Amino acid sequence: MSGTEQKQPSANYNSRVEGLRDLSPDERRAKIAGIVGLTSEQSDLLRGVEALPLHIADGMIENVIGNFELPMGVASNFTINGRDYLIPMVVEEPSVIAAASYMARIARGCGGFTTSSSQPIMRAQVQLTGLTDPFGARAKLLGARDEIVEKANEQDKLLVSLGGGCQDIEVHIFEDTPAGPMVVLHLLVDVRDAMGANTVNTMAEAVAPMVETITGGKVRMRILSNLADRRLARARVELTPQALATKDFTGEEMIDGILEACALAIVDPYRAATHNKGIMNGIDPVVVATGNDWRAIEAGAHAWAAQSGRYTSLSRWERDGSGNLVGTLELPMAMGLVGGATKTHPAARAVLDILQVKSAQELAEVTTAVGLAQNMAALRALATEGIQRGHMALHARNIAILAGATGEQISQIASEMAQAKDVRVDRANEILSRM
Ligand code: MEV
């Protein structure tokens, strides 16, 4: 955090913020900062203007020529494991934040989300080629387990002192690949609060010579696996039919619709891809806002969704014995709190000051709950009136702004266009000039 005086924001805030959407961006930010207890410096970073100085950006990637801005909003109403969270989300798509906040509000009335996670264990792969005795090599590697783990842990004494480090190995055999038999050594590394890519890659490179000596094979690749199937986060929500009912649909009808929508995503990869995209609509914006690697999360999520051999839904929606709708989501979540852009990007650090999470596992769990909320929002709309009405209403606001509308004009022009189901800039211009 920049600045000298460091105020510790409060994690005991209330995420139910009335009228947030009716405020201007500056008013909203001030409101959120007030609720969470941010300093004016922290709040300014969230505004985004000059939040990432060019010299820091220049150190982050190569050939920097500038910064690229995206809107950051805050999803409200989330209660997760009995604690309230305001969730910063960076995303270009309208409806995402409104939908998450709306579903979180319904969930809140039913006790909110509950989450859990595995230990933060990442995998690194060390590929061995040139072996004619893959099973013999496997036996030798497993016999040298302690030696390999020790060598890996020599690379990161700090991680080991924090309770992490390489814990175990696995050896996978591929008897028949286009390039002959292969043996792949996996290092299973508890990376604690890091995303862990650098740590496990360093370990994989360090053990490679030893692995060659032990097996007589040739090591080729030494790299993490983004299928972080030992680093899972889970979220669960339970909703009563009453909480789901609208003026047009009973709760039971809503649940039937959501179950049928989920059923198709379970059996049909065409639908599963879209269904899972809806989940990632919730997850990616939090991953981006916290400076985490969204490509890693995406790769892990989709590989996990295909684990059974057929690409399927990441979430499950069921009806429990009491007639309530139960939604669950479990997926690999390699999110870190230390290192990478999470550490270097000042706005990402301010985002973490809003979230007030104590560990990378908590961050992963919160993000998973947002994914589940987003999925529920999409299914609820798709199972009933469809998404276009809500989507167009919000999209219309963007179009009104593009046409030059300000203040009250935005809502007026947006609602007129949405009602007429004619959302275009020239139409917005026409209404604006009439005004
Ligand atoms: C749009 O960004 C996401 C949805 O297509 C997700 C879904 O279909 O479940 C609405």
From TrEMBL:
Amino acid composition bias (Polar residues), ranges on this chain: 1-15
Record keyword NAD present: yes
EC number: 1.1.1.88
Gene Ontology MF: a single term: hydroxymethylglutaryl-CoA reductase (NADH) activity
Keyword Methyltransferase part of the UniProt annotation: no
Keyword tags: NAD, Oxidoreductase
InterPro entries per record: HMG_CoA_Rdtase, HMG_CoA_Rdtase_bac-typ, HMG_CoA_Rdtase_cat_sf, HMG_CoA_Rdtase_CS, HMG_CoA_Rdtase_NAD(P)-bd_sf, HMG_CoA_Rdtase_sub-bd_dom_sf
Annotated spans, Disordered: 1-20
Pfam families: HMG-CoA_red
The reaction(s) this protein catalyses: (R)-mevalonate + 2 NAD(+) + CoA = (3S)-3-hydroxy-3-methylglutaryl-CoA + 2 NADH + 2 H(+)
Pathway membership: Metabolic intermediate metabolism; (R)-mevalonate degradation; (S)-3-hydroxy-3-methylglutaryl-CoA from (R)-mevalonate: step 1/1
Top-level taxon in the UniProt lineage: Bacteria
Stated family: Belongs to the HMG-CoA reductase family.
Protein name, entry field: 3-hydroxy-3-methylglutaryl coenzyme A reductase
Origin species: Ahrensia kielensis
